[in-house]
Structure formats: structure tokens, C-alpha cells
């Protein structure tokens, strides 16, 4: 069967056509970018028409690259970034620019609500935290959480709020645009922290809606990730070049599907993802929470299972930043090499080239340490004012040291998250590493050395969320168990084991890395607060 998945990231969509039978095969894919607009007041917005234009262009490219016909597509779904906020009217039209998960304008609203009360934990009202924890083992402990986007619009854009019909996440909006049906999947509903996860009580919790001042009428009907939502409308089918009535499934968030695409679906399986953001996630049959480290068990794509999830907000984004601003500036040491034709032929991409270059730098980056907090941080400490830094630069250091330090800094932070998870749950000794970061053999080995764990990669690692979403659609079409389907079809590609010769230098740098936030927290607030 052929399935289309739209993998919506922070800054681009990868549209994938899969064939699923005795194996899962990526038949064709096409990508397109769209904007992420950072505002001076802490806003981070996107454009629904840019999203839709990206969908239209990439869908067209799929069929230009393959002999598959649109009428052969059995179903489609969206695998999208999470914790955004799209406010729509009754027709499903967005009332304002979507607010990306990085949007942090709701700081005042967050502090007014969660900072009240005599007794606090992690700066939040103990009473409100306990009410949330009793319902869903989670709570809003960050101004970036979706409810504060909702409250910010209520307070600052009353004309928009008066017209508001339903509050959606990114993938839910796109599903509504395709089908005309306005719903939320359970995983994106949970990401608002207003969803009740207790067995037999799943759904919007009226008490939490009252506590946060959210109108129940604004909360959509909830469906499961594997549920069919409806068929493509005539208008959507015409614009996308697909067959009217093609089944559209619930889909859901990237965090829900990556574990499926990674094949990490047995309780205790741990995977690490590095894309624009990054995370460590362990698959569980129960929920647990660590408020001190800001880690909780989020819903998986299958009811009754959870992903114990610890996030790094800027992971691959850090490598993208260093590529643009250090490797390729006007005096860059790589500039002259990139003009040579044989170098372009030898290396498939600039990322491959840079990985090869940093492999020439010894482990430990000659003493340079980088902190990957380009847009603040969430786990294991919540601080929107935290910033990235290069620490311990000396005369002997060069750009290769700095670029390697960025990769190592991402891995140090992931190790920190892994250790925090291990305090509460049993993490697996063998870890599946997925996302664009897993394309680099240098990074894979580095992650193994720094964490001390065996690292496995899989096929289609850049599209791993889309693979998981395709498995969910296939399970929905065929009435199969999605976890069993993942176990059967997702295979190990390569294995990396820790090099003991690198342990001492990495352990030394890691000890310093963990001290850098505490030592600089006041300075971050002085500069960015």
C-alpha cells in the first residue's frame, strides 16, 4: 500500500511517499521550507499559507519523481512539530499567525497564574502543580507552553479571541484544512497539559480548564492518532493533486511517532533524536514525572503507552548556526575549499564535509566547550534567558575546535538528559539514535563515547517521524497493532560502541559543562531578562 506523510518540522516540510508491505520503503520524498519569524517581544510565528504552499509543491514533486498515481494512495497523515497554537474560526480558517512552540510572549501570564501562592516548587504554585499532577502526571512549568499562548492572545488580542472557535496544534490545523473536520489528536491535546490521562477518564479535564481560565467551548473533539478523520475535500484534493475522498488519519506530533519510526516500542527502550530540536525518550507502560528536571511521560501514538520525554530545544539548530556563522563567513577557513569542484563531488553535503573536518580534531575539542542553549532551555533546567556560549577559547584554538565543540556540547546535554531519565526509569543500554544528526558517523561515535552507551541507527533516519506516522496509518487501514508493526518492520542499520580511550577527556569536559549554567545563570538574567 502507498501512504503519504507530511513531516512538518520547525522550518520545513518533508513530504514522503511510502510503500508498506513486508517492509517499509521510502518511494519518493520532496522538501520545502517556510519561515519562522522571531519577534522582538519573544514571539515566534509562522504563516499558514506558507505551510500550504509547501504542501502543494512537495506533493506535486512526489508524483513527478515516481510512477505511482494519486489514486493509488491509500491514506495520508501529518507528523508535525508540537506545542504550537493555531486559533481558528468555525470554517477552520486561522485567525492570526500560528504561534510556534518557541514563542515565549506569555511570560507575564505564566507568572501571574503559576507564580502565585505561598508554597512553590520550581517557582510554581504547589497547589496548582499537585492538581495537574493528579490528573496527568504533568504540569505547565514553562512560559513556552501552549496554554500561555492562549492566555496571551486572550489578554493582548481581544478582537482575535472574540472570534475564536477552536484552539488547535499545527498538525490538527492541517488535518482540518484537508478534511473540513476540526479535531485534535490525543497526543497534541495532552501537550496542553489540560488532558486527563487517567484510565477511563481520558479527555479534557474540566477542573484544569477552570484553573487555567480556558473556555471548554474552545477545546475540540479528540481522536486517536490511528483514527480516520475524514476524506480529502474536493478543494483540498484539487489543490494537492490527490484523489477526492482519500482517507486522512489523525496523525499527531513528532514526539509521538519518532519512537515508532525508531523501533523503540518495547517498555524500557530509549531513543535519542537530533533534528532542529533534540530529546531523550524512553518508552513506558506507565506515566511518571520529574518536576525538578522538567521531564514527564507524554502520550505515545498508542493509548496506554507513554514516552518519558526530556527535551533540548536547540540541537541541530546549533550546528546549523555554526555552519552559517562560523564555517561559512567571509573569512571562513572552509570557503576556499567549497569552491573546488572535486570537494563538492567528494562530499554529499556541507554537513558531511564539516563532519569530516571536525574528525581531525581530537576528542574534547582541545578544551573548548559549547553550551547548546541558543533559545533558552527546558530540561533539566527551565530558563528562557539562558544562552549558548563557547567556554575556554585560547590562542591555540581554531574554528575546527569550535565546530567540534558544538557537536560535543549537544552530546553532553543529551547525556545530562539521559542521566536525569535514569534517576526515575530504567533506560536501555542500547540506544536508537535518529534524526538528521544520526547521518554523521562522527556524531554517532561521539554520542556513544560521551554517553558510554551502544548506539544503533536505522534506515530513513531523517524521516523517522514520517516512518512512524506511516506505520500508524497502515495500522489504521489494516486493523493491526502499530507497536507490533514497528517491531517487525524497523531494522538496525549500524552499531557504534564506546571507545574507552576517549572516556577520560569526555568525562572531564562533561563535569565542567554541567557547572556552566549555574555559574552563569545570574549573568544570563542580567543580559537577557
Characterise the protein shown here.
- This protein has 19 helices and 27 strands.
- The chain is of the alpha+beta class.
- An eight-stranded mixed β-sheet has the order 20-21-22-19-18-25-26-27, sandwiched between helices.
- It is globular.
Core attributes:
529 residues; five-stranded mixed beta sheet; 39% helix
How much strand? 15-25%
| Cα gyration radius (Å) | 22 Å
- Shape summary: globular
End-to-end Cα distance: 53 Å
Uncertain runs are 330-335, 340-347
| Count of separate DSSP helical elements | 19
Question: Can you list the strand order of the major beta sheet?
Answer: 20-21-22-19-18-25-26-27
Number of E-type strands = 27
Largest sheet: 8 strands, mixed
Arithmetic mean of pLDDT? 92
Proportion in helices: 25-40%
Structural class: alpha+beta
Topology, please?
Layout: E1 2-8, E2 12-20, E3 24-33, E4 37-38, E5 44-45, H1 48-64, E6 73-80, E7 86-88, H2 107-114, E8 120-121, E9 124-125, H3 126-136, H4 146-156, H5 158-163, E10 166-168, H6 170-179, E11 183-185, H7 186-190, E12 195-196, E13 203-204, H8 206-212, E14 221-223, E15 228-231, H9 234-240, E16 247-249, E17 252-253, H10 254-262, E18 270-274, E19 278-284, E20 289-290, E21 295-299, E22 306-312, H11 316-327, H12 335-338, H13 341-346, H14 350-358, E23 369-371, E24 389-391, H15 399-424, E25 430-434, H16 441-451, E26 454-458, H17 464-478, H18 482-489, E27 492-496, H19 503-528
Parallel strand pairs: 1-6, 6-17, 11-14, 18-25, 25-26
Antiparallel strand pairs: 1-2, 2-3, 4-5, 7-10, 8-9, 12-13, 15-16, 18-19, 19-22, 20-21, 21-22, 23-24, 26-27
Helix pairs in contact: 10-17, 11-15, 14-15, 15-16
